[in-house]
Each structure stands twice: as C-alpha cells, then as structure tokens.
C-alpha cells in the first residue's frame, strides 16, 4: 500500500495527533516515515540568498524533529528527519517528490474561511502542488505552542 510516508510537523501540540495516526498506518503498511519541518522565520526564508547561518530557532527545530525521529525509531519504525527552509507548502510538495514518498500525512488546524484568507493554508497549498496523495487529519483545537523535544 504505502512505502514512505511524509509527515510535516510544526513543532506544536498539533504534531502528536498526526504522529499517533501515522505510527499505526506505518506499522500496518510496513512503511518508513519521513518527518519534515519547514522553518519559515526571517532567517530561514533568507538563509541561502544571504548566506546566513542557522538561527537559534532553526537549531531548536532540528533538535525537535530529530528527537521525534529517534522516538519513532525506538518504537520500531524506520524514521528520518528533514529540516527545510522557505515556503512550507512548496517545500513539503518538493520533499515528497524528492524523497519518493507515496503519501503525505498532515494535520490541519480547521481554520475557517476568514482565517484561511488571512493566513493561508499550508494543507491547501500542498494538495494543489503535489500529485502525491494527501491525508489530512483535523487536529482538535489547541494552542499553537512549541513543545519540548523528547
């Protein structure tokens, strides 16, 4: 069924819901998991053009995503972590192709019309930019707080 599942994470409480779901799906299919976080702060968006060093936020994001991959591996799954920079939708779609993933599984915040107009929707952008199937799991309402690496 699925062999490689790309899971965008945002270093927030929304991540656990999609990870719980993906762990079960990956076990069922015998799939590997590719975690991706797209750092999109000012330094991350300009790191290559301005030849900047990795920001503290990006270092924290790297520690976080590598911790998630380690946790999944300890649970018996094959997992790897990618830290990307730039536009989240474009980077997620590009990573799915580059990493030869056959499913993108991501949580959504359940924004409504006005919020999506103001903030945009990464999930909506991804589904329009990729030919890889996208599984969207609506996370329960939560605060978008960064969580500590495990």
Would you kindly provide a written description of the structure presented here, covering whatever features stand out?
By secondary structure, this protein is an alpha/beta fold. The protein has a single domain (4-138), classed as 3-Layer(aba) Sandwich (Rossmann fold). It contains 6 helices and 5 strands. It has helices spanning 15-29, 42-46, 56-74, 88-98, 113-119, 122-129; strands at residues 4-8, 32-39, 79-85, 103-108, 134-138. The chain has a 5-stranded parallel beta sheet with strand order 3-2-1-4-5, with helices on both faces. Strand 1, helix 1 and strand 2 form a beta-alpha-beta unit. Helix 4 crosses helix 6. The longest helix is centred in the middle third of the chain and has 19 residues, at 56-74.
What is the gist of this entry?
The chain is an alpha/beta fold.
User: What's the CATH H-level homologous superfamily?
Assistant: HUPs
Provide the CATH topology.
Answer: Rossmann fold
- Tally of domains: 1
Oligomer: single chain
What is the top-level CATH class?
A: Alpha Beta
Distance between the termini: 30 Å
Largest sheet: 5 strands, parallel
- Topology as H/E string? EHEHHEHEHHE
Structural class: alpha/beta
Shape: globular
Number of strands: 5
Number of helices: 6
| Helicity, as a percent range | 40-55%
Q: How much of the residues is beta strand, in percent?
A: 15-25%
- Per CATH, the architecture is 3-Layer(aba) Sandwich
Based on CA atoms alone, the radius of gyration comes out at 15 Å
């Amino acid at each position: 069924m699925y062999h490689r599942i790309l899971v965008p994470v945002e270093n927030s409480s929304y991540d656990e819901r999609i990870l719980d779901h993906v762990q079960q799906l990956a076990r069922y299919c015998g799939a590997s998991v590719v975690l991706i976080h797209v750092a999109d702060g000012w330094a991350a968006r300009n790191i290559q053009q301005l030849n900047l060093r990795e920001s503290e936020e990006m270092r924290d994001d790297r520690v976080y995503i590598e911790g998630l991959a380690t946790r999944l591996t300890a649970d018996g799954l094959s997992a790897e972590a990618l830290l990307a920079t730039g536009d989240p939708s474009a980077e997620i779609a590009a990573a799915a192709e580059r990493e030869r993933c056959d499913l993108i599984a991501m949580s959504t915040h359940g924004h409504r019309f006005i919020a999506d107009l103001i903030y945009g929707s990464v999930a909506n952008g991804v589904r329009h930019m990729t030919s890889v199937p996208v599984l969207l799991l609506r996370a329960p309402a939560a605060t978008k707080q960064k969580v500590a690496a495990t």
